[in-house]
Design a protein that fits this description.
It is a single chain. This protein is an alpha+beta fold. The protein has 2 domains: 45-239 and 395-483, Zn peptidases (Aminopeptidase, 3-Layer(aba) Sandwich), CATH 3.40.630; 241-387, Alpha-Beta Plaits (2-Layer Sandwich), CATH 3.30.70. The protein contains 15 helices and 17 strands. The strands form 4 sheets. Strands 1, 2, 3, 6, 7, 8, 15 and 16 form an 8-stranded mixed β-sheet that branches. A 4-stranded antiparallel β-sheet has the order 11-13-9-14, with helices on one face. A 3-stranded antiparallel β-sheet has the order 4-5-17. Helix 1 packs across helix 9 (301-308), helix 5 (156-171) crosses helix 15 (467-483) and helix 13 (403-415) packs antiparallel against helix 15.
């Protein structure tokens, strides 16, 4: 017995030693003191231009035939009028009339270009919700230090902010060493095929491979993540894939007074219930792991021990994260029933029933793998599973060790002092997905400080941007364009 106890003691001692050593060896990924960006005179008219842009309701609709394209034409004309230096100095090409690709030629054509992405279409205001807005959603009103309206967070602020930065630099006689490309899509909210898809195809055909691609995405989360209360700048190094499946069944129909044992609705509802009851496995290697790596050296010692020893505490981390919708989405391929169609009268059994289930696919999973898993879980010959549209694989994961990421990291640290920088996987979708393969350095980051409560305003009611934060956003793009001019290693 003593031998057994000694062995157990040695094992325990070895375990404790391993935990301590791993914790002490946690590397620090944050940069040291970074100088602030050069001061710049911010024009008072910048916010007025963003407000004017908000007043143009460039609303995307799933059915393009229902889209009011006249508003898109107004917006394009507004940009030409509002940024005269950009109009005179940058070459502009249009794609499907409203997609805009600008080229600012650099001094050294041997250097790979910088590509900044944004989109100017917005989602509709939900019927009946207009009365809940503190200011009308398309009025572009400034009140209490905020500019209210659709597009102030997603994503007109990026389009206007990038152009403000370029207009400012042109006014200082700055000329980039490497070419700068600006690609502004008109249909990101409806898959981006006419805008980003067409522009990416053109760049691919021309053999253009940017040094860095930056799109909207992560934010400076002011109320922290993973137990941290410090601001964390979340940089998307990938984004989830996308797949929608239709789950359908055909029944006997007839009068509701004599139902069969299993109706079409019952069969489909049962299949959906099984999918919800058997979610895809939670994984730390799909994106959460690198986030924890970057934050491990910044958390208190007890939490650091957990982050540094995920081989042991992985189940605890996953159990903690799946308790929130955002944490759960970061850990797994998600399953979301979104549409159910069946029946038209309360006393008539519908012949057919169909449910649409949407999946956001974590890196490491695949479209084909999700389809196989769904069919295995449904496991009913009476229920058909078919693709609603062609799925999209998760985006390639960009490196955090590249010179491009270090430039982005340094720029964030200079403009947002005190914020920690960390990579993560974006759970939504961006135009960057269309540019997959053009650059190994594709990132998703919107230079905006927002707390969780304000993040919920995206696509919701009372979308707004703090005036001071919009000015900081412009400074960020100016700093990034200046910082990104060095030679490619």
């Amino acid at each position: 017995m003593r031998v057994v106890l000694r062995l157990l003691g040695l094992v325990l001692l070895g375990l404790i030693l391993a935990l301590v050593v791993n914790t002490l060896r946690v590397p620090r990924h944050q940069l040291g003191a970074v100088p602030p960006p050069a001061p710049m005179a911010m024009p008072d008219s910048a916010v007025l231009r963003l407000a004017a842009a908000v007043r143009i309701p460039t609303v995307s609709t799933t059915d393009f035939a229902q889209t009011d394209t006249a508003q898109f034409g107004r917006f394009v004309a507004f940009l030409r009028q509002s940024f005269p230096r950009v109009r005179r100095r940058l070459r502009r090409q249009t794609f499907n009339t409203y997609g805009l690709l600008y080229e600012w030629r650099g001094r050294n054509p041997a250097l790979r270009p910088i590509l900044l992405l944004a989109h100017y279409d917005v989602v509709p205001v939900q019927p009946g919700s207009a009365a809940q807005w503190q200011q009308p959603p398309f009025a572009g009103v400034v009140a209490g230090g905020y500019l209210y309206g659709r597009g102030t967070l997603d994503d007109k602020m990026s389009v206007l902010g990038i152009l403000e930065a370029v207009e400012y630099l042109l006014g200082t006689d700055f000329r980039p060493e490497r070419t700068v490309l600006l690609a502004f899509g008109q249909d990101e909210e409806t898959l981006g095929l006419r805008g980003a898809g067409a522009m990416a195809a053109a760049l691919r055909q021309r053999g253009i491979h940017p040094e860095i691609i930056l799109d909207e995405g992560g934010l400076v989360k002011t109320d922290g993540v993973a137990g941290l209360t410090k601001p964390v700048a979340l940089v998307g190094t990938s984004e989830k894939g996308y797949l929608s499946l239709e789950i359908s069944a055909v029944g006997q129909g007839g009068h509701s007074s004599m139902p069969p044992a299993h109706t079409s609705i019952g069969l489909v509802a049962g299949a959906v219930a099984r999918l919800e009851a058997q979610p895809f496995p939670a994984r730390l290697d799909g994106g959460v792991g690198p986030l924890l790596d970057y934050l491990a050296a910044e958390v208190p010692p007890g939490q650091r021990l957990v982050f540094a020893n995920r081989w042991l505490f992985g189940p605890l981390i996953k159990q903690t994260l799946v308790g929130t919708a955002s944490g759960n989405a970061a850990l797994r391929t998600t399953t979301a029933p979104t549409i159910f169609r069946a029946g038209s009268k309360d006393n008539v059994l519908p012949v057919d029933a169909t449910a649409t289930v949407n999946f956001r696919i974590l890196p490491g999973d695949s479209v084909a793998g999700v389809v196989r898993a769904v069919r295995r879980i449904v496991a009913d010959d009476r229920v058909e599973v078919r693709l609603l549209k062609q799925g999209r694989e998760p985006a390639p994961v960009s490196s955090t060790g590249s010179a491009a990421f270090q430039t982005l990291h340094r720029t964030i640290a200079s403009v947002f002092p005190g914020a920690l920088v960390a990579p993560y996987v974006l759970v939504g979708a961006t135009d960057a997905r269309a540019y997959a393969g053009l650059s190994p350095n594709t990132y998703r980051f919107s230079p905006l400080p927002l707390a969780e409560a304000d993040i919920r305003r995206l696509h919701g009611t009372n979308e707004r941007i703090r005036v001071a934060d919009y000015q900081t956003l412009i400074r960020f793009y100016v700093a990034l364009l200046r910082n990104g001019q060095g030679p490619t290693p």
